[in-house]
């Protein structure tokens, strides 16, 4: 089927106009002419004859685009039968290669010769970074002259281009709009912004129309195509007004339906994993998300755009973040968790109670656990889609209004709380979210445990253990001990869910009955065990065990004096009669299990326990004294209460001894604990403890004749131990206190180690924070080699979660740097040996992480990188970077891999397409399917990295060698004087050898690093020279025939020469002449120019040196030349005074 005549004529006119520049033979006739000059000759003489050649060409190009647009639009106005046929022709026309090429050429012509030169300075993308044009490269200026300001000429051309294109873009009928936006979108944005915000000659109504046009262009673009364009327009040299304009548009992108998701994907693609990092999990829908990408996403998504209030912005963004938080993708969950927890809740303006961020993200979770169906719960505690729309809620029966919080909402609240608290290391956020819901979470865990809901119990238990691992507070432990039977407030209770889970229901009002109490007693052991697990997770459990024991023991043994409201749990308010007995029972059970499981801890912190024992024995002594004088009985308190629910025995008799027998059974644990403490080898007597022991000895001796036979032996043993302890001369020595700073540090160190090896990120972060505090204050409990080994084991952990969590290993690297500032030699030597990996025990990824730690250590040390530490570092880096490394195990593994893999292609065959392939890569051409040639090239490069130098028998991985060169360059830039002349000379030797010998295409990363090494060396030498610092060594500007890099002394000088600039330049020029890698060539050109500048500056340094020498006293020959009657110093003051002038006399 043929095209319409109008469409053919439009493209024929365009091809005729572009023929002189698109035809390879015709273009030869215009050699040396510009693109504008060539095209202007093809135009009639009377065509816009009053305008400049540029304006004439631009107007003709716009006319051709308008005619093509009109031709496509005309097809859509034909009758319906013809429209269908011509619609097919339209698709074929748009996809036709020749016509697409003509359209691209017209658009490129407008971009390069119309829009780009009309932009002011600091606007747009540099030409060298733009997409390659279909126009001939020989007639396109690489550095087109841009408008310095908004001159009328440039404004008129730009106004003409943008105005004409806007008519096409704003036409609702389909035409060439997608091609225009896809080809010159950056130029359209820049040109429209120039007219809208930086134009001085346009009327206000036009400026307003261009502002609307800019918003319309951006709104029509898809988010994936818009993000790269806008981000590429933000450069260091961008004009402030243009940067504000683009930043404002970027800040509006999260408000799009797919804005949040696309921003995260875009940033993930920009911050790719570091060299050597594993990316073995391609299961996710996008690229792996690094810590840098997560942090950048948090900064961008938590920034409220101008013109929006926080309420409007976060109400739009929150559903999209919650959808990612509730999703299945682990990277997206982690990113959204960090954005919410750190970017929003972590800021006081948004995350404090009552602020919009807290109302949206935190309050619904807390209200759900407290059984409150508030407005935030109704609005936000529901599933959302990625576009921010709310998913329909599942209808569940309310069971006649019994269910307050359905199972789905309770489970969703728990999942969100777990994700926010555990997916990134923020102990502070964990405390803020869990502490207000501590009792509901405790009750939920106990209910799930008692009803065999293992999955739910594990989730809540993990959350609570994490909370107590990072939160050291006795009040929280006492709160749980007082509410250990808590199953809900008076209004509600946990119950069965609609789908077999857990829901929150209204509490039924019923009379107390026996089976309910029996179930409480049966579950008491399990609840106490769960409580002790949380106590064991507390970082200060050694101190808190005694406090908890003291608290529950007082409730158990002195409950009568504490009253009815002593703080014990009240599972059902209608059972008030049983509250005192339940209080005793619970407290006794906790005290009993504490004695069983934490006896050693109690003996190490005895003063509180001794005070409790003293109060107990003193109470019994007073009771015995009262019974003897008044012959009255009292209610008994005995350990037998543990075996029954209620034991109310009122023993009021006339025999005092019978009452003593009953009440004194409470003394049995006291005597046992006292004997344990006194017999402990770690027990020490201080002044305060000595006073307590004396009072105990007096009270026990008083009670001993009145105790029943079962307690006589324990009491006698305790009395004898007290006498021995008080009379022991060693114990009588001055020991003022049982605690000293080392004990606190030791406990902190122990807890830090436990937390570091926890699988939970916030707990690990808390452990690293504690260890950092110990390092900063140089605690004596730290064993430096052991601490460094611990950190390295975490850094190189084989566990997948620990190895890939950048939040963890980046913090470990920071700690290693802090440790190195205290002990540089030990840390540098250990890191360098582990980095060299002579025994081949580490993977490449582990070695590169150790390299990152070395880099951080060098940066932290700065000027302290001297002596043995600098020497060891330099020697090892040069050893790894050179070909001295022998990796036999790696060679064997490569051999096994080669046997399994199919034979590789011939090297010459693969090299045939390299030039073409690199051009494709530089053009940054997007394609839906990966080019097989490109895949083969990349595979070959990676294999070359792994194989190492081809001429060596067992070479090291090229990536490790490149990393070693980079570390050495950083050390040189940090403190060249500390490394010394020998290492500086060896570095030049290493760099030149690498550039000349490592010429394979796979070794390009080595050559890049080698050039950077030389650049850093030159920069360090130059900075030292400019600052007047004498290094004692430097470069020679005189060529020698012996070596490029001799470490020798110059004659007549104490300065050591580490290299000769002319010889180095000759080697670099030779390398540049054969270099094929564009990046290396660019670095080499910069290095050569730097060395040439060094030669020129050396002349100035020489003049400066001579001037300083002239100021010193000299033995001169005088001012007159012997034998000649002339005065060479005519400008001296002598001749100035006499008025004489020099004369030139001719002598025969």
UniProtKB/TrEMBL annotation:
Top-level division of the source organism's lineage: Eukaryota
Pfam families (UniProt xref): RTP1_C1, RTP1_C2
Example of a GO biological process term: protein secretion
Domain RNA polymerase II assembly factor Rtp1 C-terminal: 750-863, 1060-1093
Family label: Belongs to the Tango6 family.
Protein name per Swiss-Prot or TrEMBL: Protein required for cell viability
Species the sequence originates in: Coccidioides immitis (strain RS)
